Amino acid sequence: NACFVYGTYFGVSLYRFSDGGNFLTNRRLTNGINGSDRSEFYIPVALNQLNTDQLFTATYRVYRTDNAKAASAADVHFKTISPDLTSGCTGPAPNGARACVISAIGIGGGTAVYTGSDDGLVYFSPNAMTSDNPTWIRLNQSNGVNDKNTLPRRPVASIAVDRSNYRVAYLAYNGYNAATSHQPGHVFKTTDAGSTWTDVSGNLPDNPVNSLTIDPSYPNTLYAATDVGPFVTYNGGATWSALGTGFPIVAVDQIDMDTYHRVLAAGTHGRGAWSLNDASPAAPALVISKVDAGVPVGPGSNLDYAITVRNIGNAGATGVTITDPVPANTSFVSAGESGVNNNGTVRWSGLSIASGGSATVHLRVRIDADLKNKFSTIVDDSFGATSAEGPSATGSPTVTPIAPPFALSLAPASQTDGAHVGQSVTDLVTITNLGFMTDTYTMSAAGGTFPVSFLDSTCTTAITTTPAVPAGASTSVCVKVDVPATATDSATSTATITATSTGSPKVSASGTDKTIAVAVDTLVVDDDAFADTAAHSIDVNSFYTAALTAKGKQFQLWDLAADKNLPLNYMKAFKHIVWFTGNSFPAPISLYETKLKAYLDGGGHLFLSGQDLLDGAAGTSAFVHDYLQTTRASPMRSPSAAPTKLFSSRSRWRNTGRRTSELT
Questions:
Q1: pTM of the prediction?
Q2: Is the model's pLDDT at 646 over the cut of 60?
C-alpha cells in the first residue's frame, strides 16, 4: 500500500504518512519507544516486505510494531524486543565511531533479523519477527587488533538479506581498511545465518560502503552505494564496476530497486535523488515463503502449511515447480492444488505466475503420536521454487513449536477503569488457548474491595465457566465491577482476575482490574507534556486546579504524562471535563479524539484549552470540524516545530556496459 510512508527527522523521531505523503499530514509514531534512548542521528527503519504491518526501528535496542498500518497513528504500538546490542558506551565508540548505537537493521525472508552497530557489533535473531522475547546471537565477535575473526570492528552501515532465505545476507561497512588493517574489507557475505562470513569486497575502492541491494532476479548481482558513487557486481563480489555513467562524483547514501519495473534509485549526499532504468531482458524474480496455520500443535496433531511464491520481477514466470520435503517426525496427510508426494518430497508442477502475481499451495502433515519429549519443535526446511526462465528461490526454515496440552493467556495483563458511586462498570478480558487440546476455563476474582462478577462476551448473561475454546482460539469474558454507593471519591479497588483450565486445574493465567470510584462531577485532564521540562517550566495545571478550588469545585485529576491510557468509562462518569494541553505539540489531542467524541455524544461537557491544539494537520480532522466547530482552509505549521525541506534532482545517468539506462 503506497499510501503508507515512513521516515524520521533527526534523533528518535519516527513518523508516518497514510495518504502517500501529502503536505504536513505526517504523524509521529511514539507509543512504546523511549525518546531519550541514545541513538543514531537518523535512526534505522526497516519494513517487513512480506508483512507490511510489521515495522522495525532501533536506538541501542530494537523496537518492533505489528500494527504499523493501524487506522490511527496513535494506535501504532512498538515493543522493545532486544537488550542493548552495542558495547554499551555512552560517549564516542571504542572504534572511534560516533556512538555505541545500532546503525543498521536487516530483514528478509523467514522470521530472522540482523542488526549492526556503529561500534562494529553484529547480532542475529532467528525469531525476532515472531517472538516478543527473541533470542539474539553475537556474530563473529571481534575483540581488537590481534583478533583474526572475519568481520572488521568498523561501523556497520547496511545489511541486505535475501528476500526468501534469511541465511543469505550481506554486510556493508563504513570507514577505511587502515582503521582495521588486520580485518580489511567493506562487503561481507554469509550463507549460513552468520556462522561464517566471506569478504566479497573484490576490487571495490577502499571507501565507505553505505548501502546494499540484492537483485532478486540475478542472485549473484549486488548493488552498492559508496562514498565515491554506485557500484555493481554480477559475479557475487569477485569483481565490481561503476554502475552506469554520468553520475556525479558524490557520496551515495542509499540505493534500492523497484523490482517490478527494474528501476534503481540512488539517494545522494547533497545532489538529490537519481533513478536508473535497467535495460537488461525482462525476467521474473521469485520470493518463496512458508507459514504454518498458527494453531498450537502437539503429538498426534495435524500441522497445516501454506507455501506462497510471489513474482516480484518484470516478466511472468512459467513452468514453476515448488518442492517441499516432509518434515522429520511427521507423516504426509494431504497436499492441495494437485501436489504429489513422492518418497517424502511433495511437488507442485506446471504453475505460471504473472509479474506482480503469486501462487499458494497447501500441505498437511501429522505429527508423530509418540513424539519424544526431546523434540520441542517441528522444522520444515529445504523447500524451494524454480522457473523455466531460470530464476529460483529457496526458503527459510519454518519452525513450529510443540505446545503443551493445556496452556492459556489472559489479556490485558492490567487495566484501569472507573464508575460513579452506586453504579457498575464492565471491561472485557480475552482468554486464548495456547495448548493443543480444546479447553474451558473457570473464572475467579480475588483481592478487590468492590464486588466482581463475570458475564459472557455480550455482558448480558452471568457465567462462571467459559464455553469450550479450541486450540489457538480465544474467548472474551466481561468483568463487571459494582462500585458501592458508600464508596468515597477516588477510592480504588484492584482485583486479580484469574482463568483456570478445567482440563488441568494447575494451569491458569491472571491479570489485574483496577476500578476508581467517582463521587464528584469534574475531571481535570493534564495533557501538558512539556510542563515539567526545563524549557517549559510553567505549571499550567496549577492555574486550573487553583481556580476550581477557589470556587469550591471538587474534582479528580488525571495526568496523561503519567498514564496515557485514559479510560472512556471513567471519563463518562463525570459531567464535566476540563482538558488543557499547555504548549504541547504536535496535535496533542489526536490520540484522544475518538474517546472525546464518545464522551460528548453521551452528553458530557468539555472545556478544552491549549496553545497548539490545531498544530499541523490536526486542525483539519473531522472531530475538530464537527465538535469544536473549527475549520481551517489548509494545514498550518506551528512556529515551534522544525521545518522540513523537500527537494529533487533531475539529471541523466547512463550506463555504457551491459545495462543502459536513462533518468526519468
A1: 0.84
A2: no
